[in-house]
Amino acid sequence: MAINRSPVMTVEDYFEWEQRQERKHEYIDGAVYEMPGVSFNHDIIVRNLIYIFVSCLDRARFGFHTAELRVQASPSRYVYPDLTIVRGRSAASDVSEYNLINPYVVLEVTSPSSMDRDRVDKLGYYYEAPPIEACLIVDQHRICAELYTRGESGWLSEEFADPTDVISLKMLECELPLDQVYRDIVFE
Q1: Strands 103-109 and 134-138
Q2: CA-atom Rg of the chain in angstroms
Q3: What φ, ψ does residue 171 adopt, rounded to 5°?
Q4: Would you say 70 and 95 are in contact if contact means Cβ atoms under 8 Å apart?
Q5: How far apart are CA 69 and CA 116, in angstroms?
Q6: 3-class secondary-structure state, position 184
Q7: Whether the predicted pLDDT of 6 surpasses 70
Q8: What is residue 166's three-state secondary structure?
Q9: How confident is the model at residue 1, as a pLDDT?
Q10: Banded pLDDT at 96 (limits 50, 70, 90)
Q11: How far is it, in rounded angstroms, from Cα 135 to Cα 21?
């Protein structure tokens, strides 16, 4: 399924329009993109990530949100990561209570129609968002996760493709065993 792009609209018009829509839409510099539905594998991976985070995150220091909450990546870019982790209390923008402004770690599970946007466009938006310290992109069609972390001299990337790999999210003091991220996934 191709991601549908609408004509250009203002941020204010987008906020008002989005509340009346049945499906979610991301807003990028005036253009609106309909979010695709999710497959079983996509949903299972998100579920597995939630289970892992529930067991390892210090709830006094961190919280997380699902793809139901929009993230403000910049004043002209609003996206829906599959999971967003915040440090401390979640904060909404003053322009809309539906916009999370303090994402700390974002997680994306690729979909066939959004794979390039997740790995290129959205990753670039996350790089530019000062509060974001890491982005994890998980492929739903093969065992492969890419971790991007903010370093002193720029962003660093690591790839995890062996089921015995463990993704260390040091900023969260949390580890994600890759075999648990892909638990119950059947590849064809």
Answers
A1: parallel
A2: 16
A3: -65, -20
A4: no
A5: 22
A6: coil
A7: no
A8: strand
A9: 41
A10: confident
A11: 28
85: left (phi over 0), alpha (psi -120 to 50) or beta: beta
Task: Indicate the pTM of the whole model.
Answer: 0.91
Map residue 91 onto helix, strand or coil.
coil
Burial class of residue 151 in the structure, from the number of CB atoms within 10 Å of its CB (0-12 exposed, 13-18 middle, 19+ buried):
exposed
Conformation bin of residue 171: beta by default, left when phi > 0, alpha when psi is -120 to 50 = alpha
**Strand, helix or coil for residue 26:** strand
For residue range 47-71, what is the model confidence (pLDDT) as tens digits? 999 999 999 999 999 999 999 999 9
DSSP helix/strand/coil, 88: coil
Strand residues in the chain grouped as ranges (E): 25-28, 31-34, 62-66, 70-74, 77-79, 83-87, 99-100, 103-109, 134-138, 145-151, 154-160, 166-169, 174-177
Sheet with strand 154-160: strands edge to edge: 62-66, 83-87, 103-109, 134-138, 145-151, 154-160
Structure tokens at 80: 């829906």
Position 3 scores a pLDDT of 53
Could you tell me the two tokens for 128?
């530019």
